[in-house]
Amino acid sequence: MLSPSAFVPTSHSNGCFAGFLNLPSSSATTFQFSKKQGSWIRKAGDTEITAKFELKPPPYPLDALEPIMSQETFEYHWGKHHRAYVDNLNKQIEGTDLDGKSLEETIIMAYNNGDILPAFNNAAQVWNHDFFWESMKPGGGGKPSGELLKLIERDFGSFEKFVDQFKLVASTQFGSGWAWLAYKESRLDVGNAVNPLATEEDKKLVVLKSPNAVNPLVWNHHHPLLTIDVWEHAYYLDYQNRRLDYISVFIDKLVSWDAVSSRLEKAKAVIAEREREEDRKRRGEGKSTTGKEATPTPEILADIDTN
Ligand SMILES: [Fe+2]
Fold first, then answer.
1. 184-209 pLDDT, tens per residue?
2. What is the distance in A from the centroid of ligand 1 to the CA of 129?
3. Distance CA 287, CA 289 (A)
4. Please, which domain of life does this record's source organism belong to (predicted)?
5. Distance, CA 42 to ligand 1 centroid (Å)?
6. Residues whose CB is under 5 A from ligand 1 (ion)?
7. Which end of the chain is more exposed for a tag (fewer CB within 10 A), N or C?
8. What's the predicted TM-score (pTM) here?
9. pLDDT tens, residue by residue, 114-141
């Protein structure tokens, strides 16, 4: 298995690494981040090679979630399915306008307002699986704490009611797909609304499901916090057709609430920065006090592309 320390992220967004480059320590190849292209550039002598997405390993050994999620499942799910998405994506984007984009940009552009381009499914599946592996940890599960628990209790009534809803949504996704916990901004996209700004209370945790490779990055104002893969390849070796058993044990023993809390904090920071930027623009300043526009986030791109 490849060592996580041998990887360098191609981009950061939503607190997640999008794609990775394997960096053999003995190689004379050097890497530089290209702001223009928004990706890492590999330099070998005088030749510049645009970085490709590479398979990122889970943040734990493949046998770390035994016996709940077996090493055999990881060897197929990560080692074959996830790898195939990465390989196919790299073939699909080569020489296209998507070559050199970040993974999140690729997902938004290839979603193409629902009229999806060929690269969408592979790009989204690469991102979804990275996000899924990082949604779990050895010794995970149980109940979250702190602000996350308070929000869950506020928005679902109780932690137990959240679990019931998550199980229902994940078990009723017909065919292949994903279930999500997301932080949803409530915003009125009406220019002349009297009060178009949402308050903190308007922002809510929601449980959602999506078919095939679709993820919340392509929806307006949804910040993904947690996901479970409900494609059969995720659970069939360990649980056969018992999807509900797999979902239950995922909640009870695998969820990394630390990762979910961290994503929530980062989502709030992204939202707060965007609101400050919008407020500055409303005041007529036209640009940020730092003298440059804030870097667009995938959520902002989603707003632009899907409104
Ligand atoms: Fe999967």
1. 987 655 555 555 555 666 789 999 99
2. 6
3. 7
4. Eukaryota
5. 29
6. 229, 231, 234
7. C
8. 0.75
9. 899 999 999 999 999 999 999 999 999 9
